[in-house]
Amino acid sequence: MRNDKAADHPAAEGCLWMWRYRSWLILVLFVWVVLLCLAFVDTAFERIDEPIENLPLVVTLSQAATVAGGRTGGTILALVVIVLAYKRWKQTARSIVAGLMIQTATVQALKHLSGRPRPADFDKLTVFYGPSTDFHSFPSSHAAFAFMLATVVGAYFPRWRWLAYAGAGVIALSRVLLDRHFISDVMVGAFIGYMAAFLVLRWWPPRESGAVLQVTIPGSDKGVI
Q: What is the pTM of this model?
């Protein structure tokens, strides 16, 4: 039932409408930001970030972060999360493996379909050549994995949520600073990773000792039941 007070105030009714459809509004805003990056920001940033990229400390930290989000480092991080889950380790492992499968399939399909060169391979130009090329920059698999794992961590360990997302953000940024990806690559990769984990957590929500947990996932208006 609509609130009568809200009905008497158009501004309040507009706020309710925005709150009700905030997920779609966020998605539309995200798409616009990605398009803006593709059109202007990607190339512009690659032209001005060289002084930052060449700082020894930035290079060292970026290399460490990108290793953490790679195959070996990512496996270690995933195992640590599973071990820390203790009695729920099977549930956590299932969520991570399922999220990884969805995320990897989506990312690899888009990589082959888009055919986008990496920043270091094509003199800072941002173009898409389509299928049947050796260019696989778009989207970032590191960012996808990092945000998939961060979303799972946030569901099973709510207190660690923002720390997990901060770590995922550092891994994604490291790919840009190492000239392995454009900003839009890591943005789309992060979105794919988040959605992969979000769907898995909807299918298999976290439970403890047979009881249902109420876990809120960022961007959702309801907890996972």
A: 0.82
